[in-house]
Protein 1
Amino acid sequence: MFAWSTFLTYAFITAITPGPNIMSWGNGMKQGFVRALPFNFGSVRAKC
């Protein structure tokens, strides 16, 4: 049986919080690809 409450909680939280992907995209648009690399590498390192 599918756990709807778990799925809906996950969908709600991911819809309203800015995750690393959105923050990386915004940082890259603001500063450029090369200047945004340290932030992106830091995000990857923090997840591991």
Protein 2
Amino acid sequence: MAFRRTREELLRYRWTVYAITAGAYFLVYLHRVSPAALAQEFTREWVVTGSVLGIMSSLYFYMYAAVQIPSGMFTDTLGPKRLILFSASSMAAGCFVSYVATSFGMVAFGRALIGLGAGFTFIPLAKLLRYWFRRTEFARMVGLTVSIGNVGALFAATPLIILMSHVGWRNSFLVVALITVALVFLNLRFVADRPEKMGFPPLEDADPEELDEEGDSAFQTIKRGFYIWFHNRTFLALGVIIFLLYGTLMGFEGLWAGPFLAHVYGMSNAAIGGWLLIMAVGMMVGQVFGGWLADRFFIDSKQKQILIGAVVYTVSWGAFLWVAGSPHTILLGILFFILSMNTGISNIPLVALVADLSPRQNYGTIMGIHNIFPMSGAAVFQVIMGKVLDMSNPTVVGGVRIFPLKGYVWNFTLCLFASFITIVIAIALNKRLKHIA
């Protein structure tokens, strides 16, 4: 088959495709944590309680988790470009609803629309990477993509607060909506599901099995994706590992790290923000470094990197138990960084291994099933850790519940135990996949 554009042009043009789609993922993370900056404004305008604010914020995560399997199925049947178009359009619509909101209920509806769109972003983006980049580049690109998302989370802090101070919270939603609409039009004009649709030659030859599946119906494609996942125990093992690794980290970083620093070390909100920034930077470094390691040294043995990351993560929780409550804040800061960094080092090769074990035709469906595990882990561990703290005989000071050090130590012990389980599973995984190395 003759192609009207060269491979050299493809190697340049693919970065245009990537920049546009990664821009949508930047917004996914910006919206994920933006309620922290917006909460005061909402409280001032509608005098809502903390529990109501919490429900509004959580709508993002409920919608995100609910659409993971549909996101994978539609990615395989409708194509990733259409899904990212829908994703960006839904997020833009949510921003517009919030901009014109006349009640807090409308803001909550806007938040749900944003969560719906956000949930349809990562899986189609990852499938685009399967076609526009080589297999030996995939882990690196996933790491870079998630790091770009975390930059979006950083922008939801001080930069968003500065923007609101100049134009107000409503106009801030409008600004983000217009940026998102611009991404929709750029996607329409410059993005395609695969290089061949834009006249480029493919980067890699398709497997014979994939060529046989090109004519499959939508139902056959989805059915095959479910069949592959449920008939390969490796996928379940990888799901449990990321459930425990991401769940314990998000249980701490995503909710209870702030109260720990405030209750045990008496830190102010400003100081806590700096410590959480350490974890955010650690995660970004781990994601980029983990992707580079996977592509450079573990291209055919990613399960080994997962095991190494799990071991270091477990040792870090053990050190956390020793340091917690002590005056060694420098060592504590180092552990904050290492904990989040090692999650990235383990999770990126894990996502890449899912890709290695999945036919490209069915990757969306398989990844959609897999993506339920980390979100579920985060939700489960935040609740469990809260219940553990409630059992530690907290005191109430000025209407605020203060948890003692022992409650946090119990939770760190729980995280240590959970991370040790990941080592056991990773060892079994290495034995099962040793023929890949």
Protein 3
Amino acid sequence: MKRIAPLLLSLSSLGTQAAPELAGLPPTEPLRAALEAQPLTQAARQQGLAELAAAGGLRHSPYEWTARAGTAQRSEAQGQRWAEQELGLERTLRWPGKASLDTTLASSAEALALAHWDRAWRDATLTLLQAWFDLVREERRAQGMDAQAALAAQQLEVVRLRVAAGDAPRLDWLQAQLEQERLAAEQASAALRARLARADWQRRYPALGTATVALPATAPAVGDADSAVPAANATTPELAQARHEAALAQLRARRISLDRHADPTLGLRLARERSGEERVLGLSISWPFGGPQRDARLRGAAAEAAAAAARLQDAEHQTAGVLQAERLQAQGLVHTHAQLARVAQQADETAALSRRAYAAGESPLNAVLQVQRQAREARTAAELALIDALQASARVQLRHPDLLPAPALGAAALP
């Protein structure tokens, strides 16, 4: 846990103390509305409310009052007959220790229900994050191909003028036409993929169907966790769920252990016999004797508690590794984008120089086309690296406790 706390604090301290916005995504409030409208999110909410209701029931006794009423006809050999009536009321009572533990058990079950809701909300958020950046990738590819097609058209016009002036062979014109047709095919393919991605996004998130965001020039930097001050109760939805599951399993084992001593049933009996000549008032108590089944249930609960404790230990180790991997990946992708952006800038400058050199008759066309292909590949790599860095940084930012937190599920304790 000492490793997890500083990582979480570092991951949540990206910028000012106010809740940050996710770079490269729509504002958080529209995102929240889109997430809440998701059918799977609504299903998770209803499931959480069902778990809260079941947990709240643990605060009350599972036993209920039972009323009995009966009537009989008594007859003797001498021919006398009497009408008799009987009323009874009984209820099984929990031992005070069981009632107190049930209250604690209810609180633990409610905490687990809230942890399940937090986990479902984060999973929905990450699904939206992936879908959004998949859309952005396809649309940025299409925009890049549009720009390249425009450059190819300009280059084709330059070639046409030089061929018409007799300064370039007709072969240059054929090569330039072939390059433009190839880029047009790639442009059409990229545009189709972008339209399909947008249609899929609109189907899944209609509230954000037409959303567009101008990408920043760089992804936000991710801090170093080694310099962070440890947080007191650092956690993640996955780790919180494991903690609550382990605590609940321990409480259930304790509760089943108490059930080795059965609860007594008290009864009150009121009878009217011999047509009212005799009246009977009685009190009864019944007490089951525990058998092997209770011992078997206890062994099973103890094994489940041990399994939950082992899963918690694994979750603690996994959480530390996941947080560190997310941070390192984001840092690495931000650095990679910075390098590729410089390469793309240099490639663009080289391509511009080569186009001017061809226009002046100082460079062959095949060299110009080769340089332009390299510049296009470098620009595409830089664009995709930026999107990857933005997605990784956004995933890290989502660890911020005030950024897109799960909305309130419901009352933690139901009557």
Protein 4
Amino acid sequence: MKRAKRIVWKVFPFEMYDLESIQSWLEDRAKEGLFLQGFILRWAKFTVGTPQTIRYRLEPAAEAEPDKEKLDLYAQYGWDYVATWSNEYYIFMADDENARELYTDPHTLAIPMRKRLRSRCFWTLFGAVFWLANLVGLFVAAFWNGYPLLNWIQAGTIQCAIVVILLLIEIFSLVGQFAHYSKLKTSLKKGKPIRSGAVYGKQVRRWYLSFAATMILIISLLFYPVFLGNQETGMQLPEYEGNLPFLQISDFEEEPLQIGGFFYDGCDQGNYLVWQSDVLAPKQWKLTQLADTVPPRADGGGFYWVEYYQAKSSAIASRLGYELLVKYPRSEGCKEEILSLGEDIYGVYSQTEGKQYLLLQKDTQVEMIYYNGNVSLKPLASEYLQAWERS
């Protein structure tokens, strides 16, 4: 029984424009006893045999495989069809050093290459413009509503930075490919042949470096929230046993289960605590409490929520305070009152049509409180500051 040939798979570390390096790389593999059989994505399939000198040539692919007429003609010249790479190129091989070149005149090769290269130039340039538009859109979306830092932190600073870097890598890669395709098209037009024997080590190292960097960034983007702390976590408030850096409704509403008092909703939208972390704001807390009176009051009871941030620096905290004002009370046209709470403490009380907001900021801590119940938040500012110290 005939023994099956051993198969070896190797990563194919070249872009489609680098024809000279591709031909040289395949010929060097043949000298090692590895002979090309085909491709699956970025992997080249080789059979292992006796090392020998083989010439490889690439030409533009019109279909999935060359027609019989072409195969017969090339066979007469001493060239055998090996595989089609990515529906872009046919790859032929010859083990006869005297086999005539498939294209003795570069201008002849330029004819079938012209349309393919024009198409590749268009799509690489289109891709670069498309991803550049996405990058611009990302920043426009962050700045459009007036609170970019909040958007950035809530989405995850590291994740956003990774997305920006990936977009930049893709843009520069496509711009580089466009330049190389344009150069190849010009070279063929001038009659310069595609030669073998190219030194491709630099291109291979660059491809592996780019590929490794991209994979590391993608894996980091996918798993950073899980392993490094930016994953949002939450639970019902009664389940939390630690100290919170803010008050709850029960801290300022008396006898919550009596007539005129408040009853806490147990669903996820009420009495629910969420925390998260980010490199710019290591501590983020959010509390939502829905409340109703027993029996129900005409005003519908109250709705209470808190956003608390402990930022990396006082400058970041100050900016977060400004953006919280822009996002909430100022977007609703609330009247603002600056509170005198002591040195280095910034406090703003805002209200309109039964809604009230309280913003507090000191050093690296900033907090926004909203409440539409009957109790005023304004005299509670000092109690909120004490809650910071307890936590």
